[in-house]
Amino acid sequence: MEDQLMDGYDVVVVGGGAAGLSGALMLARSRRSVVVIDAGTPRNAPAEGVHGLLARDGMPPAELLDRGRAEVRGYGGQVVAGQVTSAKHDGDGFAVTLGDGRVVRARRLLVATGLADELPGVPGLRDRWGRDVVHCPYCHGWEVRDRAIGVLASGPTAVHLALLFRQLSPDVVLFSHTMPPQGGEDARLLAARGIRVVPGEVASLEITGDRLTGVRLTDGTVVARQVLAVASRMVARAGFLAELGLQPTVHPRGVGEYIPADPMGLTAVPGVWVAGNVTDLSAQVGGAAAAGALAGAAINLDLVTEEAREAAAARAEPSSSAPRGR
């Protein structure tokens, strides 16, 4: 049964992935009232397993999140399904509004909403995403090793991506697609590793049964491939932060947009922290979880410090029953 949303918490965590749940776990273990509001749309949902996560390698993403939710609840934290549509200042805290009209107040916010992958407009890419259309050699590379791999040049990291997948398979080609021809140092590196560059725009994917079998160019040529690697444009899911004055910033490498923060996750808005892919576009599950834990600890310290100062100020105030001086 889903937890019932209360009126207010020490911390509202927006996003129930690895970063959000890890932050909530740290806060709940610190005896903070905390709720995770989860839209239920994790980025890695299409993947069969989480990889590169020590002691949990290959675990289905849904199972990992189920365990995380149970752990948070085991320490008194709550997890509530919902889509956050806005967050704004409310006195010395924040008011968070959900899509169904519910409003909850928080002293602090931890935003761990992740990112959205924007793919090139090639028919079939989205349908195969996370299966035989992949983006990360560390997330999917072992599973596609030694296959015929194509890399779609769709952004500034295309050559970098091709070289990484060449570590995993001897048969890698780079489809130049709409990008200018590779030249200079890039061309030299590709040639040195035996990565052939295929000119021409990609029109579609060739699917036989339920398998990728080739990549079709606009001139009708079909290049046999079993896997296609695509560098998506990664955009932070952070539109609801606009009322707080937080806007996504273009990443210096040109790979997308993120919410800047300090090493502990604190944003430019006091009281608002971020963790995971919403601020670190390249973070894998383990890194996102670690960032969430760090942000959770930082939030607890911030609250502890505030409460200690308030207690000290109250202690220093003269008693109302004490005689007044003349």
**SS summary, helix count:** 7
Number of domains: 2
Mean pLDDT: 94
What distance separates the N and C termini?
A: 63 Å
Using the coordinates above, name the CATH class of the largest domain. Answer: Alpha Beta
Radius of gyration over C-alpha positions, nearest whole angstrom: 24 Å
General shape: elongated
User: What is the CATH superfamily label of the largest domain?
Assistant: FAD/NAD(P)-binding domain
Question: Can you put this structure into words, describing what you see?
Answer:
With 326 residues, this protein is of the alpha/beta class. It folds into 2 domains: 8-117 and 233-316, 3-Layer(bba) Sandwich (FAD/NAD(P)-binding domain); 126-230, FAD/NAD(P)-binding domain (3-Layer(bba) Sandwich), CATH 3.50.50.60. The chain is built from 7 helices and 19 strands. Strand 13 and strand 14 (222-224) form a beta hairpin. Helix 1 packs parallel to helix 2 (61-74) and helix 1 packs parallel to helix 7.
List keywords for this structure.
19 strands; five-stranded parallel beta sheet; 26% helix; seven-stranded mixed beta sheet; disordered C terminus; 7 helices; FAD/NAD(P)-binding domain; 27% strand; 326 residues; alpha/beta
